[in-house]
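hi! just following up on the protien thing from before. the input was this:
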Amino acid sequence: MDVQDLLEIEAIKQLKYRYMRCVDMKLWDEMASLFVPEASCSYGGGRYSYQGRDEIVSWLEKSMDRDGFHSSHSVHHPEITLLGPTSAKGIWALEDIVIDMDHEIQISGAAFYHDRYAKREGEWLIEHTGYDRVFEQVESRRDRPSLKLTASMWSTGGASAIDA
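and the predicted 3d structure came back as:
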């Protein structure tokens, strides 16, 4: 491995980090720019599989683009393998939490992403992404009446209702 390989791996890491930020911030146009047009995805052990950048982003937007939907997805421990000058694969550990105020549930879990990347016109893009769950748990927020959402990017502009 040489310095150029390390630079390529860093570029792929930045791509995945942008993907996660776009998911949580609901930045669908920017999200679309991270995929090759013919991209594919397979989430939840294949339960949610889509072909093509537009179909993938449309599904994510349909699933998550509500004011009452809050998520935090953190990826870490990347294992990036360069397969050639324009192809690579990666495995990422995922930890996520979803607060869905519309359905009054909270979901948390862990998974491993398995990605493929393609370098097009000097830029790394996602060719395939998806994860298989290690575990997932769901809890009714109704069971915890003291649990309150005190800040939301979409309902409070990110400001906390707690006086400091």
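The chain has a mean pLDDT of 96.
The first strand starts at residue 35 and ends at 43.
cheers
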